[in-house]
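Summary for the funding panel

The consortium committed to producing paired sequence-structure records for every protein in the target list. Below we show the first two records in order, beginning with the earlier of the two.
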Amino acid sequence: MTDPLPSNDATWRNRFIALNLTRIGGTALTIFGIVVWQGNVLRQGGWTEVGFPLALIGLAISFLAPRWLARRWRER
């Protein structure tokens, strides 16, 4: 029976990079959403209708996407 986990170092490195880029991207989206929500970036006084959903989506990406990727890689 073959081992389902890849033993190639490049594969592990690429997966590590993908997980961290996912976390960083989610965090950046969260920060951008908060700035739009509370700051004067797009509209004077903030833009709740756009910023708050962006912040929530960024949080979901930051916390849930790495788990989803790890589970997907484990199933292969």
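The next record, for a separate protein in the list, is shown here:
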Amino acid sequence: MYLQKEGWEVRSFLNGETALQAIPDHPHLWILDIMLPDIDGYHLLRRIKEESPKVPVIFISARDEVLDRIMGLELGSDDYLPKPFSPRELVIRTRRVLERVYQQNESKSFHLHPYILDEAKRLIKKEQELLELTSKEFDLVLLFAKHQGQALSREQIIAHIWGEDYVGTDRAVDDLIRRLRKKLPELRIETLYGYGYRMVFQ
């Protein structure tokens, strides 16, 4: 009931066998009790992970034992909640697990007209044409995309692209910008003389 009040669609199973039949439905999250009337909760967890390795699982149990926690985590559970627990705590833990798992899996894209930058896949396209960038060139475009319209100093760019331990000169930044302008001519990268660069977005 508490989970449904949060707007989630909830299905309940009274035993492990009926839960097994629902595995092919690929729910976004499982909340499992270790003590099931017919099959072992660990067995159900194994079956879930065999079918859907990335689906998160929260284990609950009346036995607040270290071994139960370790077993659950080793088999792939994402959280463990001993009974008795507050329904509100279950809601909070459920929300956190869902946000952590599915926000990480989202492919975040940036639209830098006429280019589309896919951060998760590290790809950049123009009208469905895949463009080739080196790792550092991609990192620089991504840095600009995350700081739209902001002025970035050469020192900031060096720290982000090459790391704090970089011992070369800041001319490497200018060379990287030059290559980027050549490969992505429709990006508007402004030179801020004596400071750094800024990408202007239309």
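Regarding this second record: The mean pLDDT is 86. The first strand starts at residue 30 and ends at 33.
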